[in-house]
Amino acid sequence: MIALAGAATADEDAAAIWRKNVEDRRVGMAAFAAELASTGQLRSDLDQEMVTDVLWLAMDVRAYNWLVRQRGWSVAQYEDWYVRSVAGTVLAG
After folding, report:
1. Which residues are 91's β-sheet partners?
2. Which pLDDT value is given to residue 70?
3. pLDDT tens across 53-67, in order?
4. CA-CA distance, 56 to 27, in Å (whole number)?
5. Which one, of 66, 88, 68, lies nearest residue 77 by Cα?
């Protein structure tokens, strides 16, 4: 996916595939946000669209690449960061 993201900057076909991936991830994160909203545990100052944005951004493969591959984080460290960051951002105290 990282290679595709890079290729998307220079190749029209790769860009179309990358856009489809980004859109599909957004649809998936919208479903996840709806599921979270159904629990009643979201912060009251966030609407479902904002929660979708947070989830969508956090699930970008480039974040994993930057932290694990570039910065040397372990997968466990990344998973812990992801869960704490997203939960801390979208869930009520």
Report:
1. 42
2. 94
3. 999 999 888 899 999
4. 9
5. 68
- Domain chopping of the chain, boundaries: 2-90
Nearest to 58 by CA among 37, 84, 36, 38: 84
How confident is the model over 6-52, as pLDDT tens digits? Answer: 666 666 877 787 788 889 999 999 999 999 999 999 999 999 999 99
Nearest residue to 91 (alpha-carbon basis) of 43, 51, 45, 52: 43
Distant-in-sequence contacts of 82-89, Cβ < 8 A, 24+ apart: 82/58, 85/58, 86/54, 86/55, 86/58, 89/43, 89/54
Under 8 Å between Cβ of 90 and 34: no
